[in-house]
């Protein structure tokens, strides 16, 4: 069984009619997963609710308490914009807390069982920096999950970010930590403009792999073979966290890379050569059809 950490509450983060990061993304993924040939081997798990386990103290160890408070107030007042790209609705704060819980439930599952799982959440997280959310992201889900893992038995945590955009927030939060290795594959130049290969982290624990517009799986495979797998394998991580965004698909409206959904199955197979203790968590991906098929392709190799 592969757990899918999901709640319908994730649909309640309302970004408005014209925003690409919408509830329909999760609905499309859900529909595709439920019609996959191995659908009965998925275990749909509702994340620990925020009354039973508030993640606020953990989030405060990563994010500026003033930002957390301002975000809560913005939601309580009915919502608004953090920046031009990042709307907040009345329920967004609570939904973002539940998303963090899903990621950390995923960490618990992977560490305890030694097996992979998928956190099917929104809002995404990898652009949020310590002091503020940005780029559709409210809390730094992957960095929070990594720190949670380090507090709960893991000695070394690897993060692979294959969203088409650089995971600037994740990198900024973890780049000083020798117990975390962060690797990002992203289109360059592209939003948010960070992620140069020269950014290596305080302990050479960061590996940025900028990819040119139009890149295909033929361009990505050598990068996995020669760079990503050696960098993360030699670290011998106790946990691999994947910031799984799907906006590098050819049909995605927000970027210019030319991957196909089945290429994400190739990525998963590379991850499985590093460890089976993997938490995949959803980041971007804005073309509903290829997004949904890509999640199916990501999970399919986990079934064997
Ligand atoms: Zn993205």
UniProtKB/TrEMBL annotation:
CDD domains for this protein: HDAC_classII (cd09992)
InterPro entries: HDACs, His_deacetylse_dom, His_deacetylse_dom_sf, Ureohydrolase_dom_sf
Domain (Histone deacetylase) ranges: 19-299
Gene3D superfamilies according to UniProt: Histone deacetylase domain
Biological processes, Gene Ontology terms: epigenetic regulation of gene expression
GO MF annotation list: histone deacetylase activity
Record's protein name: Histone deacetylase
Family (UniProt): Belongs to the histone deacetylase family.
Pfam families: Hist_deacetyl (PF00850)
């Amino acid at each position: 069984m592969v757990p899918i950490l999901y709640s319908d509450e994730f649909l309640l983060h309302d970004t408005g009619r014209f925003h690409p990061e919408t509830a329909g993304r999760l609905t499309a993924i859900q529909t595709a997963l439920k019609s996959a040939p191995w659908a009965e081997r998925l275990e749909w798990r509702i994340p620990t609710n925020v009354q039973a386990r508030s993640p606020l103290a953990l989030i405060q160890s990563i994010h500026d308490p003033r930002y957390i408070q301002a975000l809560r107030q913005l939601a309580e007042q009915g919502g608004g914009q953090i920046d031009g790209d990042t709307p907040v609705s009345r329920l967004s704060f609570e939904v973002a807390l539940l998303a963090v819980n899903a990621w950390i439930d995923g960490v618990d599952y992977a560490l305890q069982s030694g097996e992979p799982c998928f956190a099917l959440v929104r809002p995404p997280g990898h652009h949020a920096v310590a002091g503020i959310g940005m780029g559709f992201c409210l809390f730094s889900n992957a960095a929070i999950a990594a720190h949670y893992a380090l507090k709960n038995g893991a000695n070394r945590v690897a993060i692979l970010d294959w969203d088409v955009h650089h995971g600037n927030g994740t990198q900024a939060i973890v780049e000083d930590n020798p117990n975390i290795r962060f690797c990002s594959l992203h289109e360059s130049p592209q939003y948010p403009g960070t992620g140069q290969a020269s950014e290596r982290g305080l302990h050479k624990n960061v590996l940025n792999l900028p990819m040119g517009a139009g890149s295909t799986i033929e361009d990505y495979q050598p990068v996995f073979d020669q760079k990503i797998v050696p960098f993360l394998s030699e670290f011998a991580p106790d946990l691999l966290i994947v910031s799984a965004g799907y906006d590098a698909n050819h049909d995605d409206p927000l970027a210019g890379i030319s991957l196909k959904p089945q290429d994400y199955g190739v990525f998963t197979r590379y991850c499985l050569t590093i460890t089976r203790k993997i938490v995949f968590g959803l980041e971007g991906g804005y073309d509903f059809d290829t997004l949904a098929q890509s999640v199916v392709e990501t999970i399919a190799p986990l079934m064997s």
